Protein 1
Amino acid sequence: MKGIKVLVVDDSSFMRKVLGDILEETPGITVIAKARDGVDALDKIDRDRPDVVTLDVEMPRKNGLETLKEIMDRFPTPVIMVSSLTKEGASITMQALALGAVDFVAKPSGTISLDMRDVGEELKQKVLGAAFARSAVPGKPFLKKTVPPVSSLKRQATVKPPVPGIHPELVCIASSTGGPQALQRLLTALPSDFPLPIIVAQHMPRGFTASFATRLNDLSSIDVVEGQEGTILRPGLAVIAPGGYHMILKGGSGSLSLGLSDAPPVLSVKPSANVMFLSVAEILGGNVVAVILTGMGIDGTDGAQTLSSMGAYVFGESPETCVVYGMPRAAMEAGVVNEQLPLHKIAPALDRFVRENR
């Protein structure tokens, strides 16, 4: 792939210029066109065939959701939503992720954000990652073949057996790009009587996780909430770390609760899976199951190494179902994954492992 061709879509000429300038600063990215609304965007996608589209939500003639649906139907292409930090914007963004958007970036101060450069680095990294992402929509692979074929990636089922004597008391999950779709698939496949609490570090900015948790709760048999300081854990409850905070485990065996930390980001992310995993290791040692799902980067590997060294069992998502095979690959290469499985096999394997080892 010679360079990543990007189409910027926003109804504000100011935002089109700012977004274009930020992306043009990145080696390997070329902004090939800009579009003022959804209708203009569809014409330019048909004409220019970009590798990645950045897509505004609120636009005249055809809004972001309508445009995204048509993109995925006519020209399946990686899309990064550029969303407003509002309750309505968060809800629409969750719908966009369900429709196939790879990821999103929040405008820091509304529709026209003079401080968009505050999230410029995040935007660049997500566009770079999206260019190599796999579609999460069944039957709708992206048109551009920018990802390595699955056959070239290391496939492995059972990697190593569990440490004898493990009695898991908690499931902790790390996920990033593609994670909202993966978590929906995993959590909605768990039965209502799932016997352990679940805590989740999904890389997501402040203001979006409440809508995300509400959507998962509506779709799942288990309960799903956004984490708060003092949230009491119980079987059948999944807790999503609130965006902009690290979520840490507190209490002791049989009386687990959660705390929030406003400490600086770790590996540029907050919430951090490593921070969460390490807090789990301090309280429960190896009596834990960790799951590392799709995502860019290496968050989760250090924490999983600590948990694994204490006897925890670690599932990793395999490359054929990852939107981005980054975090699971890092954990796999670190030698901490017990079992690497495609996404649709993780929930039944997790349920079976937990029940057999309690």
Protein 2
Amino acid sequence: MKIVQGVAVAAIAIGGVSLLVLLAHSGAAGAQEAAAQTVDPVILKWAFIGAAAAAGLSALGAGYAVAVVGSAAVGALAEKPELLGRVLILVGLAEGIAIYGLIVAILILNQAG
């Protein structure tokens, strides 16, 4: 069960990183040419890498947190079904980690150009 969760978390993280790199590369292709005239290309490269790392690592952390909290929540719900509202809040807080990473990635890309 832990191996399946680990593979799922890794797949989500890899998908998030690749999606962000694709969006950043395709969306910023035209803007990159204009920004390249004013911003050093090395700085742009590191900004893209940093944004991808922020989004990917936060997705990895959020996936792990949801896996741990979710499995514990299912165990708690089996014993006390009236805890559903509290459990959903805890799982939502764990998912917030990915949103924070995405916000940081957007801020990095916005500052880069």
Protein 3
Amino acid sequence: MENNKKKVLIKVQNLKQYFPIKKSFGQKERLYVRANDDVTLDIYEGETLGLVGESGCGKSTLGRTLLQLYSQTDGRTMYYGRDIDEIAPGYVEDILKNLVSRKQTLQGLRDKEDSARKAYEALPDGDEKYAALEQLHTAEKSARDAFLDIVQLIGGFYTVDDLTPISDILLKEYKQGVEYQKLKRKINEEQISLDGTKSTLKEKGKSKDQIEATTASAKNRISKLESELKVIESQLTTIRSGIYELMKKHKSNTDFDKYEVYRDKGINLARLTAEEMRFLRKDLQLIFQDPYSSLNPRMTVGQIISEGLLAHKYFDKNDEKLQEYVLNIMEKCGLAPYFIHRYPHQFSGGQRQRIGIARSLALKPKFVVCDEAVSALDVSIQSQIINLLLDLKEEENLTYLFISHDLSVIKYISDRVGVMYLGNIVELATTEEIFAHPTHPYTEALLSAIPTTDVDTKKETIILEGDIPSPIKPPSGCKFHTRCRYATDICKKVVPEFEEARPGHFVACHHKLM
């Protein structure tokens, strides 16, 4: 299936993850480790995206930043696994409240972008023009981000001159949506608590009538909350009808549809608060490299797997269905039922990794970062875990970001492959395409280093000379130019665009290997 027909699950735009370094005495400039520097990519639902590169290039940091385990320094990370109405994040209220002033700010940024473009175009070729190009890119990014913040929420309404009534009605819808979601979660919590109480009473040998009598008040509470939910739902429908009428009124504007295509229900993970992000944690999971140190040695397998289920209120701790659910997940991950009361130290490396996988998948996530998930295992066990991950992906329609140094593992498991160098993705394509036609010199060098048992294959191994430059002060222009055998003067001065060289094949290089 072509990429443009697939559903995007995560859209990353200009992501930066910098870590500040403590200033030394007399140092004026604040320095940063630029672990991820301007990363842009889409991750499609149901795919496995492999990520390769040398140690220290920022692969694990990117995985953890996507999960918002680090607060990203800059950029947008849009998540489409849930509707924005389910979370109703605070940043949406802020944008809707200030639509008028934000549109004015956007106009100011566009003026700056135009000035930067004119300055760039007026200069002759040379160092000064290269510097002006960087300033133009910065101005373009600021204007684009401000524009997307607005149009992703209001779409075609962007064409309306006076945004005040639009702001009012959308804000009203937002607030009612927040109330709706709060009530829905409360009903869910009450229901889980009720199930737990029923299980406890059943265990104590109470009759069906006694259980019914004891839980009657809780049932009434749930019924009352459900009635309130219906009222709010009806009010929301009325508000949305009003929005629809407004859309019909403004749809005659020729530019309405042009801006309406930008409207989507994506959630900008980078702007969520810790509490809002907590709600999404169940969707975004991580499988760690070291299966032993990632498991709590004081907890049994059953406790480890059920911990997340209780924290996210899937079950009450007394609910009889909890153990049944945990055993089912263990079976899917190839763990025998009698392991449930054992501790991590009683297992081999492969079994511990299966426990880690079971813990991640118990919450029914949509996106899983597998951070060197098989690197610490024996080769024979690696194949079992990889096949397990592939089976679970098919069954649960999971999406993986698979980080590894091992190109053969990446080739086997991935649908697409991204190659990272010093914090940037330098090449991205389908697995077949990237192994058949490496277009970036760094990818060419990596693939040439794959050992082969075919004695007839006469392949030149490309030796990359020198160490990876420091991510604190990376080289100017293309970061790979200090080790690239094709580098020319432009590579030292201009950052190459990450552009589509062939359909679905993206590369950032001034001298692509076509």
Protein 4
Amino acid sequence: MRRIIYLLLLIISPLLAFSDDATSALFKKGNAEYAKAQYKEAIASYQKLVDGGYRSVAVYFNLGNAYYKNDDIPSALLYYEKAHKLSPGDEDIRINIQLANLKTTDKLEATPEFFITKWWHGFILACSLGTLAVLSVLLILAGALLLILYRFTQSVTVKKVSFYSALALVFLGLVCIFVAGRQADYFDSHHEAIVFSGSVTIKSAPTLKSKDLFVLHDGTKVDILEHNNDWVKIRLSNGNEGWITATDIREI
């Protein structure tokens, strides 16, 4: 039951963004500052929303754009990636991540995924949780209305059509909820971070005396594997692993 409640809260949270006037006013203030090329002021406005606990694709995306214009690429990538987690199928976010990555130092060749795994991840990440929430509600509501029609109509033909259509719509609504759950599980099990230090040596063990493995630069995205006191074990997209101090990265 706790899992279902958590999932429902996760699904509806994007729909509650900008639900009060103060939040909306601060977002518009940030947009106006950005339009006037006042990027530092826009960052401050958007950052107030984020620091206040708001999780919104629009806020994260605009904050990433403001940092990008301010030539702070690690921060831009951090907030683009946060926006991507909320709306993984958004093409504008994907393109901006690619543009920001062109300005990073480390160019890594990612290890190719097994084709079925790649297809499955593409399927569950095609839509945002907000879109899946709206679709699931509309489909199940339409199915319920058709069942009411089935209950009261006198036409045999209408009864058959409404009954099977209702079953199909409710099934599709449940599929949307299932996909939303798998998407939430995916992000729960994939913890990532952005390197914020200009240049950092990755170690073979969580101690400064361990062997140097390789060097990373700011803006590089890493997978988080485990924590050990002030150290974090990371994996790169090319499969390389090592330890980095927690202060050198910021979790997405």
